[in-house]
Amino acid sequence: MSAAISCNLYSKVAEYRGSPVSSLFAPSRLEQEPTKDQSPNAILHGAIAESKSGLEHLNTNLETLNLFFYLEGFSETTDKMTTSILSPPVPLLCPSVQHQGCLPYTLDELVGDIKAHLGESGGIGYANINSDYLMSLAQKYNSNPNDWARYYHNCAEKSYTRNTIENINSRANILLLVWNPGKGSPVHDHANAHCVLKVLAGELTETIYDIPEDEGHPLRVKKQSTYHTDEVTYMSDEIGLHRVHNPHSTQVAVSLHLYTPPNAADIGYNVFDEATGKASFIAQAKSLSVGRS
């Protein structure tokens, strides 16, 4: 990689974090002359605090920079990639906020808590699912590409790619979806299942429709919302039909989906013609098995 590209990319990362590159190399407080109101101890303590803050800031930037390089490794050739380093798939890659002395809630912990809620073996039925609790778990997790980059795979020829993170006792599945620029899903139902959706990178626009009573009429839009990184939403057939798409023309988006029970994958689901309301059955939604099970 050329120095020019590296410099340009690093500038993008530093700009994203809210400060120019030059601020990382600001003069140390120790190099400043004390004023008459400052004691040497005060200057020393201030310099230590400033240095610690600067290192944390630099580490955060470098983690983000490393992820740009890491995600590039998922494609065998650069011409197959939807986006390039200079148009990264993630400004997107918003590092999770880590408070001093507090370890972040990880994706593995999220999966573990979902499994605990669903049960160790047989799971629980649709009617007994606590969707509010599942949403609270998803909200608790701050997107961290270090967690989910191992599941990231994007098929450039598809509108979106479904990647399996976990199958839970045949009672639920957790997927990582990668949405190509400007692409989206057809209007569809959820096969009598709960769906919790969390945006991990970029933005996604959801359009919700009334379930048509008969065919021959355009679908009626109930609501349209755009969700940003770390925002969570919930969908089920009781709410209606929906369509999800990536509104950006140059950047991919990434999202986490929990389906319980996994009826769409095990049996199938219906897609709908937006102009006529006609339903068509799609057997077994397929995913790429890049996850742990």
TrEMBL record:
Record's protein name: Cysteine dioxygenase
Gene3D superfamilies cross-referenced by the UniProt entry: Jelly Rolls
Binding, Fe cation: 188, 190, 242
GO molecular function terms attached to this record: cysteine dioxygenase activity; ferrous iron binding
Biological classification of the source: Eukaryota, Fungi, Dikarya, Ascomycota, Pezizomycotina
Cofactor mode of binding and number, as noted: Binds 1 Fe cation per subunit.
Keyword Calcium: no
Known catalytic reactions: L-cysteine + O2 = 3-sulfino-L-alanine + H(+)
